[in-house]
Design a protein that fits this description.
Elements lengths: L4 H10 L5 H7 L5 E4 L6 H12 L9 E4 L3 H17 L6 E4 L5 H9 L4 E4 L1 H8 L4 H5 L4 E4 L2 H5 L2 H16 L4 E6 L5 H8 L3 E4 L7 E4 L17 H9 L4 E5 L2 H13 L7 E4 L5 H12 L5 E4 L14 E5 L5 H8 L11 E5 L3 H15 L13 H14 L4 H8 L10 H13 L13 E4 L2 E4 L4 H7 L9 E6 L6 E6 H5 L6 E4 L2 E9 L2 E6 L19 H11 L10 H13 L7 E9 L2 E7 L4 H17 L4 E6 L4 E5 L7 H4 L8 H7 L1 H14 L5 E2 L2 E2 L2 H18 L4 H12 L4 H10 L2 E6 L8 H4 L5 E2 L3 H17 L4
Parallel strand pairs: 1-6, 1-7, 2-4, 2-5, 3-4, 5-6, 8-13, 9-11, 9-12, 10-11, 12-13, 16-20, 21-27
Antiparallel strand pairs: 14-15, 16-17, 18-19, 19-20, 21-22, 22-24, 23-24, 23-28, 25-26
Length: 791
């Protein structure tokens, strides 16, 4: 394709030449997946055809841009303003996210802009309105940014169902997916619905290494505060730095630690998704204007944000995922053919190994990613209800539409009918209750039994089921919003308590209308605020890389001297974990027997393995007392030692009783709560009120127990069992571990081993209240009787 003269003139005025992949994408007349390096002009490539088309007058919505992050839509709007102004286009560009005002949302339903920037959740909501055919009927292009991030979760299922709906409303539209980190391009192209793959020149390799630190990292912990002064020196030596932290709570703490050593008083900002929109917007604007020297942030700024002045990225903490690290690295020197510069800071000794392994994976061009499961049926239930909100529908037509969505290409008619039946009646055990009688068949079309329920359905839209949060604002009516904290954390506060939020210490005053009211209190020692989010497990690829690194002393030259010595000491007194072997060791300490298994299967799998192994140890009469799990190992302590680990690790029968155990376990109830919320069985938000997390948990637990008793094959229970096994429980990685490492290496050691020592310091220990606990009580009672001369 030859770009129009005005567009070529605009490129020339910027001193640019359009890249070949930008020209190719602008000329594509079919769905396309563009894989281009960060800084390679992906976003401009995605909009180039739109800018060419809008040289001519156009009425209605032309292009829909979908992003995983609200911050990214704001950034895109800012960056699009430049070419739009340079080309003299008389068009409107607006966003539609959860941050958009009600007035703007109402106007957009009547008069949509030419380019609309949105998120999967907001798109699903817009498709639920009767005006959807008119809003989207003129649509010509859909641009999905950072599509790999959406494809990894149920948000991707939701988006692809919405995309299939858009294809029905606007058959002439073409779809463009954009990403820099795709481990399996054909699979992602199929996910989109069958797109051609376009590869750009990958550009130069990044400049990435470990950040030199003055002190070795501690044996345990995940804060990284030990390296705060080293990080501050790196910030002082750069123009602008992004400091990525894996969790919101640790970001707050590290931000505080940086200010404690910020002797030059450099401007440093904080950004994470639990801060209020105003706080986030001010931080983004300051960064874009070059008013900050550094921003401490979480995944809220992982993707696509284009700040050209950022010349250094720091990753504090092991990245857990190679793709995440590559994405974050790309935020530095965000320009084509300019290498990104990044440094990694491990927060403890074990993380040194993961950081080195991650560096090697990046240098070798390896990306992690597991095979994507089929689309979630709970998301399909939500979609059916939203389609009903838009108006009556034909089941046959909707089924055909759904099967054109990549994740649902293989959904069966029986599965679809089960979802439709659930949406209509709630299922066999619940059909007697009016509240779940939501759809009715009239004249061959399915529709809402009561149109007034559409409001309730829309208020509970979405697939993100993080823990419940409460807003935090300064005391007084109309006080400035600061952000949000977990409801459970808020419940622990009493008036006068202080905690960190937004980088400042505040005092808790009161809870008014489900809002935590606070007063700034800079002089007090704060508690640690708790924010939502699950603990991230290290990816399979990265775990394998770490295992290979530990087991091959020839690779230790890449390690700091202290880490290499640590591994050598482990080799001298025990065994090193290696590929193909399942290494475990036993030792005594403090009158307790310890059993350590180096599984390298990820946190969730090891948490499950700890529960399964302690159950087997209970059966063997070993008296297990508790365990602790990390990404790399599980450590169990008991009254009697494990002398032969083979029976404990026998894969035969390991699943036996798992379903019964899961059914009674809080893990399953938590999974059911999320599934039920997505599918629409339970509602968190109702007009004029909102359930607390405790109320919703109570409701979902009652429903779970009722369905287990009266309808054990209920659709939502089947979804829950499947997702718990693959998600929170991660049993598949346990089976893969036992299959890939059939040889067991067991060492009985005289003392705590070097690799096990950090595990002894880990927080989050799980006590086992079984026969071992009863034996301890009996022994203590016997000792007291003996001391009293009664035995």
């Amino acid at each position: 394709m030859t770009l129009p003269p005005p567009v070529l003139d605009w490129f020339a005025a910027q001193g640019w030449q359009p890249h070949p992949h930008q020209i190719a994408l602008a000329g594509a007349d079919c769905d396309t997946l563009l894989i281009a390096p960060t800084g390679g002009g992906k976003t401009l490539a995605g909009f180039l055809r739109t800018l060419c088309d809008l040289q001519q007058p156009f009425a209605g919505l032309h292009t829909l841009y979908v992003s995983p992050l609200k911050a990214l839509t704001h950034d895109i709007a800012r960056n699009l303003a430049r070419p739009v102004a340079g080309l003299g286009l008389d068009i409107r560009i607006e966003d539609r996210t959860g941050d958009t005002t009600a007035t703007t949302r109402a106007r957009q339903r009547l008069d949509p802009p030419h380019i609309l920037l949105t998120t999967p959740e907001s798109l699903a909501l817009m498709l639920s309105y009767p005006e959807a055919p008119r809003i989207f009927g003129t649509l010509r292009r859909v641009v999905i940014d950072e599509i790999h991030a959406l494809a990894e979760s149920k948000r991707g299922d939701q988006l692809m169902l919405g995309l299939s709906r858009l294809r029905s409303l606007a058959p002439a539209l073409t779809v463009t997916g954009l990403s820099a980190t795709v481990e399996n391009p054909p699979a992602l192209a199929t996910f989109i619905g069958g797109a051609q793959v376009l590869h750009a020149d990958p550009g130069p390799a990044p400049d990435i290494a470990m950040l030199p630190v003055t002190a070795p990292p501690p044996w345990s912990g995940a804060g990284g505060q030990y390296a705060a002064r080293d990080v501050m020196r790196a910030i002082e030596g750069a123009r602008m730095t992004l400091v990525f932290i894996n969790t919101r709570a640790q970001a707050e703490l590290f931000y505080q630690a940086l200010w404690d050593v910020n002797d030059r008083n450099l401007p440093i900002g904080l950004h994470h998704s639990s801060l209020s929109r105003d706080v986030r917007t001010r931080a983004e604007a300051a960064m874009a204007a070059g008013q900050l020297r550094a921003m401490v942030c979480t995944g809220s700024l992982d993707l696509g944000i284009d700040w050209g002045d950022v010349d250094l990225v720091l990753q504090v903490g092991a990245p857990k995922n190679v793709k995440r690290l590559v994405q974050r690295i790309g935020r530095a020197n965000h320009q084509y053919n300019t290498p990104s510069r990044a440094r990694i800071v491990p927060t403890n000794r074990f993380e040194v190994l993961e950081c080195v392994a991650a560096l090697q994976a990046v240098q070798d061009g390896k990306l992690d990613g597991d095979a994507r499961p089929a689309g979630g049926l709970d998301v399909l239930c939500q979609h059916i209800l939203l389609i009903a909100c838009a108006g009556p529908f034909c089941a046959d037509a909707l089924f055909g539409e759904i099967t054109r969505a990549g994740p649902y290409a293989n959904v069966t008619r029986a599965e679809f009918e089960a979802c439709l039946e659930f949406c209509a009646t709630g299922g066999y055990a619940l059909r007697a209750y009016d509240r779940w009688q939501r759809l009715v068949l009239r004249d061959g079309l399915w529709q809402l039994r009561d149109p007034r329920t559409a409001r309730d359905i829309r208020m509970n839209i979405g697939t993100i089921t993080a823990s419940e949060t409460l807003k935090v604002r300064r005391k007084g009516r109309g006080g400035m919003p600061l952000g949000e904290v977990d409801e459970g954390f808020a419940a622990t506060l009493t008036p006068g308590d202080t905690f960190l939020i937004g980088g400042q210490t505040v005092r808790y005053d009161m809870l008014r209308d489900m809002v935590v009211e606070v007063t700034p209190q800079p002089a007090r020692q704060p508690k640690i605020a708790v924010f939502g989010g699950l603990k991230m497990s290290t990816s399979t690829l990265l775990s394998d890389q770490v295992l290979a690194l530990i087991g091959n002393p020839a690779q230790w030259v890449a390690l700091p001297a202290a880490t290499a010595q640590w591994l050598q000491l482990q080799a001298d007194i025990s065994h090193l974990p290696q590929p193909g072997t399942l290494t475990c060791e036993t030792f005594m300490r403090g009158g307790r027997a310890y059993f350590c298994l180096y599984g390298f299967a990820g946190y969730n799998a090891h948490q499950t393995l700890g529960l399964l192994l302690t159950r087997r140890m209970e059966g063997a009469g070993l008296g297990p007392l508790g365990f602790v799990a990390t990404d790399y190992a599980v450590l169990i302590w008991s009254l009697d030692p494990v002398t032969d680990p083979a029976p404990l690790l026998d894969p035969h029968g390991l699943r036996d009783g798992l379903a019964d155990w899961l059914a009674e376990n809080a893990v399953m109830k938590r999974s059911f709560r999320a599934v039920a919320a997505i599918a629409g069985l339970i509602q968190r938000n109702l007009p004029g009120k909102r359930k607390t997390g405790k109320q919703a948990t109570f409701s979902s637990d009652i429903l779970y127990d009722t369905l287990r008793k009266y309808d054990p094959d209920h659709l939502l229970l089947r979804i829950t069992r499947d997702q718990a096994a693959h998600g929170l429980v991660d049993f598949g990685r346990i089976e893969q571990m036992l299959r890939d490492r059939p040889r067991i290496v067991h060492t009985s050691c005289a003392r705590v081993t070097p690799l096990a020592a950090p595990l002894m310091l880990e927080a989050g220990r799980v006590p086992i209240r079984g026969l071992g606990h009863e034996r301890l009580l009996d022994e203590e009672a016997a000792r007291m009787l003996a001391d009293a001369g009664l035995a």
